[in-house]
């Protein structure tokens, strides 16, 4: 006889640990810069002693606000809730997004932290990795590194390409959109020449181009075999411009990370604006929300990616037949992924093995967590 009964897993408390790691230089994209790598470690405790744990996001200045929402608003809502009922817990958190005078994205990031930790808890109670609980399509995925940050060093691209080869990754996502299409095309071609024809390259403009310049860049890089062109144009008319770039150039387009709702992503898919959706679970409500969108993507024939966050993305992408690549950064750009995970799997021949431990399958280096805990956290 199969035993189906289970006891409830009441949540007793939620702990957050803000992390801030100074980077060795300022990293610049089209219209943004990054000088610290930040994240929030969230732990959800239950009455029987099992602890769900995850880390999410990269908020810096807003970090304290997100931690405050978790501690002061979400924790009281979930005290005593049954962690097995993930969907119910997610719905119970939703009122934190209702304050119209507060940036709703902060509340969604707070929800994402807790939702991720609850899912880890469920995986640990079930004794299974989350990808298996969600369907388990594949056990490893190609890993690509986000790079191509702007630099005045004329040899920076060549040295970065060498780093990619040394790390054994399958490809890169290359930053464009901050200079002219001609200059960015030359930079992209230099990377292609350095890494060879079999290396995956996606271009990411971070909404930096006008439609005309985006089309021009795509035309100039036609021989670079870009796997996708991510967020080519500004947010104001992105549905139309994504579709136009896609249809005018034949280059697959990718977006979704800037959306905060399934309805926003549905508009991208239904309007023929994207080939790849890189919705970010850590920015917009957690893995529960990402999985809803992955289901929608299967209806529209859109591939699923995930914006950054390899510690979250691997389990999600491995659970669907439409999963693309796990994204990370060079170790100096993301010291958290490369150093805070004590049992991080290596990259072998371009592939990253999905952790097979229960939940997210990750063990954090507690000494590292203590060392980089943000002041006041």
Kindly describe this structure.
Strands 4, 5, 6, 7, 8, 9, 10, 11, 12 and 13 form a 10-stranded mixed sheet that branches. The protein has 2 domains: 11-128 and 367-371, 2-Layer Sandwich (Enolase-like, domain 1); 131-359, TIM Barrel. With 377 residues, the chain is α/β, with parallel strands linked by helices. The protein has helices at 63-78, 86-93, 104-126, 130-133, 156-167, 181-195, 211-220, 238-249, 262-270, 287-300, 310-318, 335-339, 366-371; strands at 11-28, 33-46, 51-56, 140-147, 171-175, 200-204, 229-230, 253-255, 276-277, 303-304, 326-329, 347-348, 351-353.
The coarse silhouette is globular
Number of helices: 13
Strand tally is 13
Q: List the helices and strands in order.
A: EEEHHHHEHEHEHEHEHEHEHEHEEH
First-residue to last-residue Cα separation: 49 Å
Query: Overall pLDDT, averaged?
Result: 96
What is the H level of CATH, i.e. the homologous superfamily of the largest domain? Enolase-like C-terminal domain
Query: How much strand content do the residues show?
Result: 15-25%
Low-confidence sequence ranges = none
Count of individual domains: 2
Percent helix, as a range, is 25-40%
* Annotated CATH architecture of the largest domain: Alpha-Beta Barrel
CATH class categorisation of the largest domain: Alpha Beta
Secondary structural class: alpha/beta
Sheet having the most strands? 10 strands, mixed
CATH topology of the largest domain: TIM Barrel
Radius of gyration over all CA atoms, rounded: 20 Å
